Amino acid sequence: MDRKKELKMQYKEAKIEAGIYQIKNTKNEKVFIGSTKNLKTLNGKKFELEMGACTNKSLQEEWNTYGKDAFLFEVLEILKDEEISPLGIKGDLKKLEEKWMEKMQPFGERGYHSMNSRDEKV
Q: What is the pTM of this model?
Protein backbone atom coordinates (compact mmCIF):
# COMPACT_ATOMS: atom_id res chain seq x y z
CA MET A 1 0.00 0.00 0.00
CA ASP A 2 2.86 2.40 0.77
CA ARG A 3 4.29 1.84 -2.72
CA LYS A 4 0.99 2.86 -4.27
CA LYS A 5 0.91 6.09 -2.25
CA GLU A 6 4.52 6.78 -3.20
CA LEU A 7 3.77 6.35 -6.90
CA LYS A 8 0.74 8.64 -6.67
CA MET A 9 2.83 11.30 -4.97
CA GLN A 10 5.56 11.01 -7.62
CA TYR A 11 2.94 11.37 -10.35
CA LYS A 12 1.45 14.49 -8.75
CA GLU A 13 4.89 16.03 -8.26
CA ALA A 14 6.07 15.26 -11.80
CA LYS A 15 6.46 18.41 -13.84
CA ILE A 16 3.94 18.82 -16.63
CA GLU A 17 5.54 20.00 -19.85
CA ALA A 18 3.66 21.68 -22.68
CA GLY A 19 5.03 21.60 -26.18
CA ILE A 20 4.96 20.82 -29.87
CA TYR A 21 5.21 17.30 -31.27
CA GLN A 22 5.21 15.55 -34.59
CA ILE A 23 3.86 12.22 -35.72
CA LYS A 24 6.05 11.08 -38.61
CA ASN A 25 5.28 8.35 -41.11
CA THR A 26 8.63 6.66 -41.79
CA LYS A 27 7.32 5.04 -44.99
CA ASN A 28 6.56 8.25 -46.87
CA GLU A 29 8.06 10.95 -44.57
CA LYS A 30 4.70 12.73 -44.10
CA VAL A 31 4.27 14.49 -40.76
CA PHE A 32 1.55 15.76 -38.49
CA ILE A 33 2.38 18.70 -36.23
CA GLY A 34 0.44 19.15 -33.00
CA SER A 35 0.58 20.86 -29.64
CA THR A 36 -0.43 19.81 -26.17
CA LYS A 37 -0.47 21.29 -22.68
CA ASN A 38 0.90 17.98 -21.40
CA LEU A 39 3.41 16.03 -23.50
CA LYS A 40 2.71 12.96 -21.39
CA THR A 41 -0.61 12.70 -23.23
CA LEU A 42 1.12 11.55 -26.42
CA ASN A 43 0.37 7.98 -25.40
CA GLY A 44 -3.28 8.99 -25.59
CA LYS A 45 -2.74 10.12 -29.18
CA LYS A 46 -1.29 6.71 -30.01
CA PHE A 47 -4.29 5.07 -28.37
CA GLU A 48 -6.70 7.21 -30.44
CA LEU A 49 -4.96 6.08 -33.62
CA GLU A 50 -4.94 2.45 -32.51
CA MET A 51 -8.68 2.65 -31.80
CA GLY A 52 -9.41 4.32 -35.15
CA ALA A 53 -10.65 7.48 -33.41
CA CYS A 54 -8.26 10.09 -34.82
CA THR A 55 -10.08 13.11 -36.23
CA ASN A 56 -7.43 13.63 -38.94
CA LYS A 57 -8.77 11.20 -41.52
CA SER A 58 -5.68 11.00 -43.75
CA LEU A 59 -3.42 10.30 -40.77
CA GLN A 60 -5.85 7.64 -39.53
CA GLU A 61 -6.06 6.01 -42.99
CA GLU A 62 -2.27 5.76 -43.30
CA TRP A 63 -1.97 4.49 -39.71
CA ASN A 64 -4.43 1.74 -40.67
CA THR A 65 -2.53 1.02 -43.91
CA TYR A 66 1.07 1.06 -42.64
CA GLY A 67 0.59 0.08 -38.99
CA LYS A 68 1.88 1.64 -35.78
CA ASP A 69 5.49 0.56 -36.36
CA ALA A 70 5.69 2.93 -39.34
CA PHE A 71 5.14 6.01 -37.15
CA LEU A 72 7.42 7.96 -34.82
CA PHE A 73 6.19 10.34 -32.13
CA GLU A 74 8.75 13.06 -31.46
CA VAL A 75 8.77 16.14 -29.25
CA LEU A 76 9.92 19.11 -31.34
CA GLU A 77 9.94 21.84 -28.68
CA ILE A 78 9.07 22.19 -25.02
CA LEU A 79 7.48 25.42 -23.78
CA LYS A 80 9.62 26.59 -20.89
CA ASP A 81 7.94 28.08 -17.83
CA GLU A 82 9.85 31.33 -18.20
CA GLU A 83 8.62 31.66 -21.81
CA ILE A 84 4.94 31.65 -20.90
CA SER A 85 3.52 35.06 -21.79
CA PRO A 86 0.45 36.87 -20.47
CA LEU A 87 -1.44 35.13 -23.28
CA GLY A 88 -1.02 31.93 -21.30
CA ILE A 89 -0.03 28.45 -22.36
CA LYS A 90 -2.80 28.10 -24.96
CA GLY A 91 -1.76 31.24 -26.86
CA ASP A 92 1.92 30.44 -26.58
CA LEU A 93 1.39 26.90 -27.86
CA LYS A 94 -0.57 28.25 -30.82
CA LYS A 95 2.34 30.58 -31.71
CA LEU A 96 4.88 27.76 -31.36
CA GLU A 97 2.74 25.43 -33.45
CA GLU A 98 2.43 28.08 -36.18
CA LYS A 99 6.23 28.48 -36.15
CA TRP A 100 6.71 24.72 -36.64
CA MET A 101 3.99 24.55 -39.30
CA GLU A 102 5.82 27.29 -41.21
CA LYS A 103 9.17 25.52 -40.79
CA MET A 104 8.01 21.97 -41.61
CA GLN A 105 5.30 22.80 -44.21
CA PRO A 106 3.30 19.61 -43.46
CA PHE A 107 0.81 20.16 -46.27
CA GLY A 108 -0.20 18.05 -49.26
CA GLU A 109 2.40 15.40 -50.05
CA ARG A 110 4.57 16.51 -47.12
CA GLY A 111 2.06 16.05 -44.34
CA TYR A 112 -1.37 15.50 -42.92
CA HIS A 113 -2.56 19.11 -42.84
CA SER A 114 -4.51 20.90 -45.54
CA MET A 115 -3.49 24.38 -46.67
CA ASN A 116 -6.93 25.87 -45.97
CA SER A 117 -7.14 24.46 -42.46
CA ARG A 118 -3.99 25.05 -40.44
CA ASP A 119 -5.86 24.44 -37.19
CA GLU A 120 -6.43 20.70 -37.62
CA LYS A 121 -5.91 18.70 -34.45
CA VAL A 122 -5.42 15.04 -33.72
A: 0.81
